[in-house]
Every structure is written in structure tokens, then in C-alpha cells.
Amino acid sequence: MTEQTRKTSRWTIWLPLALFAAFVVLVLIGLFRPAGRDVASTLIGKPLPAFDLPPALPERPGLASTAFGKGQPRLLNIFASWCIPCRVEAPQLDRLKRMGVPIDAISVRDRPEDLRGFLAQNGDPFQSIGADDDGKVQLALGSSGVPETYVIDGKGTIRYQHIGEIRPEHLPLILEKLKEAGR
Amino acid sequence: MIAEFGLAALWLAAALAALQLIAGALALTPRGAALAGVVRPVAVVQGLLALAAFGALILVFAETDLSVKLVAMNSHSMKPLIFKIAGAWGNHEGSMLLWVTVMGMAGGFVALVEKRLPEPTMLATLAGQAFVSLGFYAFLLIASNPFERLSPAPPEGNGLNPLLQDLGLAFHPPTLYLGYVGLSVAFSFAIGALVTRQVGPAFARAMRPWVLAAWIFLTVGITAGSYWAYYELGWGGWWFWDPVENASLMPWLAATALLHSCGVLAARNALRAWTVMLGVVAFSMSMIGTFLVRSGILTSVHAFAVDPERGSFILALLAINIGGALTLFGLRAATVTEGERFRPVSREGALVLNNVMLSAILGIVLFGTLYPLLAEAMGAKVSVGPPYFNPMSAIFFVPMLVVLAVGPLLRWRRDTFARVRKRLALPLLAVLAGIAIVLAIGDVAVLPFLGLVLAAGLAVASVLPLRDRNLRRTPLPVWGMVLAHFGIAVALFGMASESAFSVEKLVAVRTGETTRVGPWAIRLMAVEPVAGPNWTALEAQMLARYQDGRGTELRPQSRSFWTPPQQTSESALLTRWNGQLYAVLGGEATDGRWQLRLWWKPFVPMIWLGGLLIALGGVLALAGRTASDIRRLVARDKIAYRRTRQGR
Amino acid sequence: MRRLLALLLFALLAVPLAAQEEQSTAPYAYRQLDDPRQEDAAQALMESLRCLQCQGQSIADSDAPIAGSMRSLVRERIAAGEQPEAIRAWLIERYGDYVSYAPRVTSLTWPLFALPLVLIALAALLLRRRFTRRDGA
């Protein structure tokens, strides 16, 4: 036998086990602290991007970014008539409106006749509605779906992004964020 | 009744796996030697019982027994029979049952036929196989019972995801599973060898057919999966570096490395510790891949439900199996010597380089796939996709192709470049010709350029080992190697060509109008509704002419399934020797026009043809090895027979 | 478990509901640029941007409306002469690194790019050890 009895060095032998242990730890973190699948906008704390949208309904005003940053915090709601969760959040928006919160909206890829039906059925808490037909303002805002609601402070800075519908239990959170934005 | 029978069979199989483990382990001790005879028969019966359970599941799916929860959740009475049957493994529980079935059958088969290894190693191997199986049985019986009843039974089932109602996909997962689980045998052999410290050529020879067979199934599975994604998803992409795809690629990479190091160990008694390590890693990659896919922990196109409970169960199994095996390796590897020595320039040297490169690619794919998870743990979201994987794997893939061209020409133990230099003239010529041709065509990006040129060189180099050989007396495994290496060249050519020369056309046309894509003229004749067994569709009739030659009809569809409600687009493909025309019917555009997506993809079928050639090479090698194994076995039996007669 | 089922059902139902939503009406969602060089540049960029609704697909491979909007945005900006990397940076500014399949070298992602070097070093180490110790054979 020309075989040599040289031994493989110690640390390389245990390297695979160490790597595997690291893998298990990593996956455990992933399993028990699953990151949300939501893609949040990274514009929080930054000024609202400039936009100027035509009116979604001919008889109502459109929406431009200049409407924000006039001293009072406002909500910017992104919605569409074809979106079911938007119907779910409508009563909450209505309540916010009755509390005196100014709400503007952007309707995404919508048609005036559908939009009118939606507002008639679900209430209309919006001061003005801009039509984002090709979805570009939605992209500019870093929004990845409907509905989403942004809290914009009095200086025109985005302070908070609420992804998904506002449920009744979310109302205190929204009010809190509005209060913070008003400071 | 059938469901209860299946469940009983499953429990029995699990009990037998426990018996197999205990008897196998005890038989290794001096006092338990009497148990040695039990282990093999138990392994066989365990496999058969698992098969019976799987058969029962197929039966309840075939007759759509909606009182079984799994059937109600995943099937529907209005579905073609073949998809009812395929539905049995098109879900989590069923696929896990398929997993243990294949594993049990493989263990039983090993127990029946493998007679070369020393008996203690065999006992340890079968005990190891039982240990791994037992974990999966527990998982099935405790956390995902496929035979659970639903009371009251619903009037109708939920149906199967329409994307999965496709022949290719019906058989793609089982093929992959055969590969994954085939590697479990290599894993058990490695455990057995570590336990008894018997790592040598006999071990490699016993393990090799299993690795080869598993590798063939993996190759076919990946090839089929890629083709499925290509025609079914409707965007003409064939590889996305999606986590699920990576999960199937990683075991393949490890198995490919294992296959080659097995060859070195079998022929030259070298690379002992490394081969055992790869045996452990290959099946570990199968389990890790399955875990990543099934736990839904990574964002993927093929999103399965996220279920932390099941996820943690599989993770615990992984930790026990892989962690245990790696610990055993750490404890024993230091006493496993490296084996025979060899020079860097030698067949072994080339195979070592091949192993190193494959392992490095495996490292890149694994790390890149897991990195988003790591980033999330640190509180950030990142995506890692083709712009990372393509160049990073190329760093190691390109040198590997060079080694692949030269390696088979080298002699074992020691050789010189001077000897093979002359033979390499031909492939070099092919490379230069490739460079000239591609430059003449012009404007090809770096990676496709490299791919085209290397494919040309490799295609020539891969057949060189046949030179100076009597073709009729060339052993089958050599043919297999040549064919597989040639297949890599073919697949690489297809990939590079697809990425360099594809032409895309998005148009909106009225019926009667003609549009052009590459050398094709395509006229939209009509768009009409058609109905299938569980779907309705809009079907476009197109007439495609290649360079204004004779027209061929193409009928892409946009299908609407109703159980569950979902839309899919069925692309229509027209294959010529030099490429494929790919047509998709999109939505209805304004004023009576239809959106069409058309691609002309030169030589794209080579990708999958290459994959099949690679697999066919594996089949030839396996056939050759098995034939010689059988010859050897028969010869040995004859000798033994003669001896007993003389003894009388 | 029941809640998981409900979620799954909802996910299945959500597909046709979302399908009610019109295909993207953005001008360049399903229309190529006339200049083939610009279209190639746009295509290359689109293949490396992530669709935010489908999550596992690039915007070049998706029928989701937002993917259509993103394709249109990419094509229009390329047509206006903007550099692909500037468009990528614009999107990353809004959606974070998640939107891009091409990781940048940052304090968070450098290990991705260090890995090949580590692997090469490790391979060199193992090979050297294997071949330099005593010339056996």
C-alpha cells in the first residue's frame, strides 16, 4: 500500500457543520420572525414627490402635490373602484372625515362611471380625486398596491404609509400618526 | 375504507422502519449479531407497505373521494382522470408520502441487491436509511396525515391549480423526487461507511449506480421543469434563478460533483473523505431544497403556503439528519485517510478541479438564494436575481468548462500538458472559428459570447476521448461520458443563442393583419371561443410563414378555468431545426385588435435537447456499470457454486 | 388552521377579483419602443426589476397591472434618453433594494460579492495543501 496516513486538518472538517448550524439559525429567525410580504415605500420622512393629476370625475377638482404642505396634515388615499378591500375601508375613511381629517385620493386605473358607482355605494369622504390612469404617480409614491394611505404633514413630508385597508382597529394608529404629523 | 387501509399501511411501515433502525443498530454490537438476518427483509417489507399507502392515496384521488380532506382540498370531480391521479402528489401531504414511498422502495431495493459491501457496513447503511425515513414517517403521521377524513364531506372539491394541470408538470415533481430520494441512498451509504470506517473502492462502486440514477432523474426533472416554465408561464423565459429552481439545481450540482469523485474513489482509491462528504451534502441539499420550497420561507413564483408549524417540523428533521451526519463526519473524517496520491496534472487532478468548481457554484447558488433571508434577519429587504447569479456562477463555470474539455484526455495519476497539447488543436480551432463567426454577426453581450464560443470548443473536445479507440470495444460508460459532455455543449449553445439572438415582438393586430418577427410573417386569422373539459378559452388562429414559405397554423389560447377560477395563457410553439417560434394571445386591445406576444428564439430547443443528452449519457453509463456488475456477480456465484461442489 | 384555510381560499378568490382590474392602460405596457437599441436597453432593465405584486417575477414576465405600469415607465424614460441605471436608482429610492434583482454593493450586500473571493481562496488553500505536501505517488 502506498497509502499515506496524513490526516485532513481539523478546522476544514468541522467547517460544513458550522455552516449548517449558521443555516439553521438563519432559518429559525426567518420562520419565527417572518418579515411581512408588504413592500413599504422608502419615501417616509421625505417630501411628497411632485405630481399633478387630472380630475378622476369631470365635475370634481383633480389633485396636485401642491395641495399638500399647507400647514395642516392630510391623508392621501390610494384606491380604485375595482378593489374589494377599498370597500372594506370606506366606513373608516368616512369616520376620519367626520372627525375633520382632510382626505384626498388618487384613483388608480379607473373609469369615471365605475368610480361614480363606487362613491355612491360606499360614501365619498374625499376633497379631491386625481386620476392616475397609467399608475405612474403610484410608482412615484413608492406604492405597490391598493388601497394604501399616506399621512402627509403640514410641510408636505410623508410621515406614514398604511399598506392595505384601514380596519376599525387601525383608526387609533392613523389618528396617532396624524397627531404626530401635526406637531 | 381505502383511506383507512392507506393509513394503516403507513403506520405499519413506520413501525417497520423503527424495527429496521433498532435491529440494524443492535446487529452491529457483538451481542445483537443474531438480529442481522432481520434487517434486509424488514427493509423490503417497509418499502412495499409505503408503496401500498401511496397506492391507496392514488385510489382515493382517482375516485375523488371527497370525504378525504386532502382530496376535497386539492381535487374536483370535473377533472380529467390523469390530473386527478397527478393531484395525489400535487400537494404537500401527497408529495411527502411520495417521498417516503420512494425512500422506502429504494431502501428495500438496496437490501435486496447490494451484496458487495461488508455486512456491518450494509447494516449501518440500512439503519441509516431507516433513521431518515422514520423522521419523514413521523412528519406525515403527526403533522400532515394525507388520509385525514372530512365530515361531513363537501359536495365538491376545490380543484387543482390550473397551472399544474399540465402533463409536463404532473410528472415533473415525481421525477425530481426520485432524484432527491435516490440521493438518500448515497447518504445512507456514507453514514454506513463512516460508522464502520470502510471507505474504499467497494463503497464507491456500491454507491455509484444510486448516484447515477438519482442524477439522471434530477437532470430530467430540471430539464422538464425548465421547459414547463418556458411554455406554460407564457413569457418565454426558461430559467429565472427563482428559489424553487435553485432548490432543484443545488442537489444536481452536488450530485454531479459526487458522481465524479465517486469515479476517482472507485478507480483509484483516492478522495475518500471528500467523497463521503459529498454523499452527505448531496442529500442534504435535497432536504434543504425541499424545506425551502415547502416552508414558503422564501418569496418565489411557486409560492406554497407559509406554515411555520410544518416548517419547524421539517427543520427539526433537517437539523437531526444533516447535523448528525456532519457531526459523525467531523468525528470520523480525521481517521479516514486521503487515499492514493496523484499529481495536479492528471485525470484525478482534473476531476478535483471539477469538484472544486462545482462546489463553488453550489456555494454561490446557496448563498445567493439564502441572502434575502439573511438581509431580512438584519432588517432589510434585498432581491438577488439573474444579474447576480449569471456572472458570479460564470466565474467558476467558465474555468470548469475548460477543465471539462481537457480532463478526459489526461491519464490517471500523472500526465503532462505536452502530451495532450496536440489533441487540443482541434477544439482550439473550433473556439477560434466560433469567435470569428460571432464577431461577424456582431453585437453579442459578454456572457452569451463566452457561452457560444466555449460551446463550440467543448462540442469538439467532448468527442476527442473516442479518438484512437476501437469504437465497437469502447465501454458504455465512456460513451456515456462523451454524450453527457457533448450534451453540456449543446445546452450551453442553446442558452447562449437564446440570450444573444432572441427577437421579441409585442403587437396589437386586427384579424386578417400580418406582423413580422425575425424571419417569420404571422397573420392573425381569427379569435374564437373554444371549450375544454374544465375550462373555456379564447383561441387565436394564426398562420405563420418562415421566410414566406409554406404556412403553418398556430393556436395559442387564453384559458379561463373555473375550479379554482383562474386565467392562464397557453402559448403555441412552432419548432424548426434552427429555433422555435413562440406565440401568446394577450388581452383584447381597443377597436377590435388583439394583443399578441411573439418571439423567435433561434436554437432554443437545444437547451432541453442538451439536458436530455446529458441524462442519456447517464443512462448509458448506468447501463454499462450495471451490466458489468451483473457479470461480476454471476462469475462470483459460479465460483462459489463450484467451490461448494468440490467441497462435497 | 381554519384561518390558514380561509386565507388560502381568499388568495384563490383574489385572483379573479384582481383580474377584473383592467390590463394596464399605460401606453408602453404592451408596446415596444420603435428604436430597437432603446427597446433592448429597456428589456434588459425590465428583466432585472421585480414585480411588486407578484413578487417572484420580473416586470418583464408579468401580466400584473403594476408590472405594466412599471414597464411603461421604464420604456418612456429610456425613450426620453434617461440611463437605465438612473431609472433603477429612481425606483430603489422609492421601493428600496427589494425592487431590483441586481444587488448593489452596499454595507448590507458586500458579503454577496466577497463570496467568490472567499471561495477562490478556500479552493486555492485546499488544492495547495493537497498537491504541495510531499510529492507522493
UniProtKB/TrEMBL annotation, chain A:
Gene3D superfamilies: Glutaredoxin
CDD domains linked to this entry: TlpA_like_DsbE
Domain (Thioredoxin) ranges: 42-183
Intracellular or extracellular location(s): Cell envelope
Key words, A-Z: Cytochrome c-type biogenesis, Disulfide bond, Membrane, Redox-active center, Transmembrane, Transmembrane helix
InterPro entries, sorted: AhpC/TSA (IPR000866), Periplasmic_diS_OxRdtase_DsbE (IPR004799), Thioredoxin-like_sf (IPR036249), Thioredoxin_domain (IPR013766), Thioredoxin_ResA/DsbE_sf (IPR050553)
Transmembrane parts of this sequence: 12-32
Name of a matching Pfam family: AhpC-TSA
SUPFAM superfamilies the record matches: Thioredoxin-like (SSF52833)
Keyword Hydrolase: no
NCBIfam families listed in its UniProt record: dsbE
Protein name: DsbE family thiol:disulfide interchange protein
Highest classification ranks of the organism: Bacteria, Pseudomonadati, Pseudomonadota, Alphaproteobacteria, Sphingomonadales
TrEMBL record, chain B:
GO molecular function terms listed in the Swiss-Prot or TrEMBL record: lyase activity
InterPro entries in the cross-refs: CcmF_C, Cyt_c_assembly, Cyt_c_biogenesis, Cyt_c_biogenesis_CcmF
Cytochrome c assembly protein domain ranges (all copies): 89-295
Residues spanning the membrane: 43-62, 96-113, 122-143, 177-197, 209-229, 249-267, 274-293, 313-331, 352-374, 394-412, 424-441, 447-466, 478-496, 603-623
This protein's UniProt keywords: Cell inner membrane, Cell membrane, Cytochrome c-type biogenesis, Lyase, Membrane, Transmembrane, Transmembrane helix
Presence of keyword DNA-binding: no
Main location: membrane
Coiled coil stretches, renumbered: none
All copies of domain Cytochrome c-type biogenesis protein CcmF C-terminal, residue ranges: 315-625
UniProt topology in membrane: Multi-pass membrane protein
Record localization: Cell inner membrane
Function: Required for the biogenesis of c-type cytochromes. Possible subunit of a heme lyase.
Family, per entry: Belongs to the CcmF/CycK/Ccl1/NrfE/CcsA family.
Name the record gives this protein: Heme lyase CcmF/NrfE family subunit
Species assigned in the record: Novosphingobium album (ex Liu et al. 2023)
UniProtKB/TrEMBL annotation, chain C:
Sequence intervals crossing the membrane: 108-127
InterPro entries assigned to the protein according to its UniProt record, in alphabetical order: C-type_cytochrome_biogenesis, CcmH/CycL/Ccl2/NrfF_N, CcmH/CycL/NrfF/Ccl2_sf
Record flagged with keyword Transit peptide: no
Leader peptide range in chain numbering: 1-19
Keywords assigned: Cytochrome c-type biogenesis, Heme, Iron, Membrane, Metal-binding, Signal, Transmembrane, Transmembrane helix
Domain named CcmH/CycL/Ccl2/NrfF N-terminal: residues: 23-135
Keyword Coiled coil attached: no
PANTHER family assigned: CYTOCHROME C-TYPE BIOGENESIS PROTEIN CCMH
Family membership: Belongs to the CcmH/CycL/Ccl2/NrfF family.
Reported function: Possible subunit of a heme lyase.
Official protein name in the record: Cytochrome c-type biogenesis protein
Species, as recorded: Novosphingobium album (ex Liu et al. 2023)
